[in-house]
Amino acid sequence: MAFKRTPQTFNCSMNEVTFGTGEKAVTIGGENVYPLYTFDGEIKNKVAIGVEITDNGFDASVPGIAEFYAGCEGMAAIAKRASEMPGASFVVLTLEGADPNGQNKSIEECAAIAKEVADAIDCPLAVQGCKNIEKDTELFSKVAELCAGKNILIVSARQEDYKTVAASAVMAYGQKMSAESAVDINLAKQLNVLISQMGIAAENCVQNVGSAAAGYGFEYVASTLDRVVGAALTQNDGMLQMPIVTPVGGESWVVKESTASEEDVPEWGSREERGIEMEVSTAAACIIGGSNAVFMRHPEAVKTIANLVNALM
Amino acid sequence: MKYTAIFKVEGGGDVKCHAEPGENILEIAQKAGVKIDVPCGGNGTCGKCKMRIMSGSLSYDKGSGQLSDDEFEDNWRLACQATMEADVMLWIPAAASDYISGIVTSGLRTPEELKKYNEMLDELFTHDLKKGVQEKGYGIAVDIGTTTNAVTLLDLQTGTILSRGTVGNGQIRYGADVINRIIQQGRPGGRDRLQKAVLEETLIPLFEKEIKAAGIDPMEITRIVIAGNTTMEHLLVKANGDSIRLMPFQPEFLEHEPMKASELRLPVNPDAKVILAPNVGSYVGGDITAGVLSALLWDKEEMSLFIDLGTNGELVFGNKDYMLTCACSAGPAFEGGDISCGMRASRGAIDSCVIHRQTLMPLVTTINKGRPAGMCGSGLIDVIAELYKVGAIDAKGKFIREDKRIRDDGYGDKEYVLFYADESATGRDIFISESDIDNFIRAKGAIFSAARTMLKSVDMHVTDIDRIVIAGGIGSGINMENAMLIGMLPKADLSKYSYIGNSSLTGACAMLISDDATEKVYDIAHNMTYIELSTEPGYMDEFSAACFIPHTDSTLFE
Question: Which CATH superfamily is A29-312 part of?
Answer without folding.
Answer: Dihydropteroate synthase-like (3.20.20.20)
